[in-house]
Design a protein that fits this description.
Helix content is 44%, strand content 14%. The protein is of the alpha/beta class and 472 residues long. It binds uridine-5'-diphosphate. The site of uridine-5'-diphosphate (UDP) has 21 residues, from helix 1, helix 14 and helix 15. GO terms for molecular function: quercetin 3-O-glucosyltransferase activity; quercetin 7-O-glucosyltransferase activity.
Length: 472
Amino acid sequence: MVDHFLLVCYPVQSHINPLLNLACRLVHAGAYVTFSTSIAAHKRMFPASSMLDFPFNDPHISHLIYFPYSDGYDDGNNETKQQFNYFLETRDMCRCSLRSIASAPSIDGRPAITFIIYTIMIPWVSEVAAELGLPMALLWTQPATLFSIYYHYFHGGYKELIASNCDDQSYSLQLPGVSPISIRDLPSYLVPKPELDKFKEVFLGLFEEMFLNERTTAGFHEIVLVNSFHDLEHGVFTSIDAKLNVIPIGPLLPSSSIDGGILPENIVKETNDVKAYMEFLNRWPANSVIYLSFGSISFMKKEQNTEFSLALRDSGRPYLWVVRGAKEGVEVNENVEKGTGLLISWCSQVDVLSHSAVGCFVTHCGWNSTLESIASGVPMIGLPQWSDQSTNVELVDGTWKNGVKAKVGEDGVLRSSELCRCLETVMGDGERGNEIRENAKMWKEKASMSVMDGGSSDLNLINFIKDIAKST
Ligand code: UDP
């Protein structure tokens, strides 16, 4: 029997992208796929659907199915808190929708759903799957290291250890398969960070639910697919308890969908003009351009944009800068006029990172951005904002050594002098720069080997699909 996967996504770009790419691979393997997310996320994805490497017209893809909730983007309100509250408020409604989709005898003439794959932050999906007796897997959209951290936090007594040492933020934790990590570098939800406390309650609650609910994936009776690859986090993959069934299948690329939700008009105009930024990159020699972008959620404050502007002017290097939202503090007219810099409000990041002209990525180290940079061999300068990003940047700087962590001031702002120093380290001729660039090249090769035919992630995915086919 041909399997029919229902893919359910927490509707943010960083979950949509890898899940869409997983959908492509499942369809390629001959399965049926139904992809579901929120109405608003769908609106954001489609203005530039031509940019998506997604087989929407393939007979094995069912139309997208929407959950009847708003995610706060609908009314143009980008108050982060509002975007996240809907999960709690509309959960029962979503559960109902999911139940009727997942138990339908057929969907658009395709067979009934046989398997559910869902991303993190929506633990109610696994409750519904369990109720209906459907097998399921979680797609973990952060590094495996983070899975290990959360797992040990909820199951291994680390909660108490962190609580009793949180006054000493440099206190180092030793987790199986993970390099020693200081409390300050743990995901932001686990450490006291007053500026992020309003999100902490919601998110930590969702993680807790995932990791402690016996009926959900965190009960670990199912499979955890990870958007990472074995070589990158072999310590974690080899030390994590085999019964947890944690399987690397990444990097799940290309991810070229689009966030049209924040500034719909501008973004649609600019992203349709893909050529403008690709043509800009075409003008520069290999590894010469600085690419700055901070994902789909974070906005930089005025003071930070001013410091970026100064650093870009002083560095004298060409740059492509994605500025989302208001351009407050952005002062680079002089450079833009001279043609050495380009400001845009969105781009197809995987295309940009894989362009040979790009020599450095100044990033918030969101997991997709980090993995896309790794897969393209581009060294990073990390400026983490929240969630897993503070841990990811430590992995880049200290473990994979394919980039550096930028030091911010006590006010959380990265000064232009420090950014210039980082740029010189990463792009200059010094020993450290050479080492970083060599490592970036090495990781690119390993990433590509893992997904090519017969590579570790490729085989893992094939075996996963075969095992399901045997059991359904
Ligand atoms: N992205 C993009 N164009 C942009 C900015 C971001 O295509 O101008 C994509 C990027 O390639 C990545 C996703 O949006 O796949 C952002 O995910 P990430 O995990 O890096 O950060 P988050 O958005 O969750 O903060």
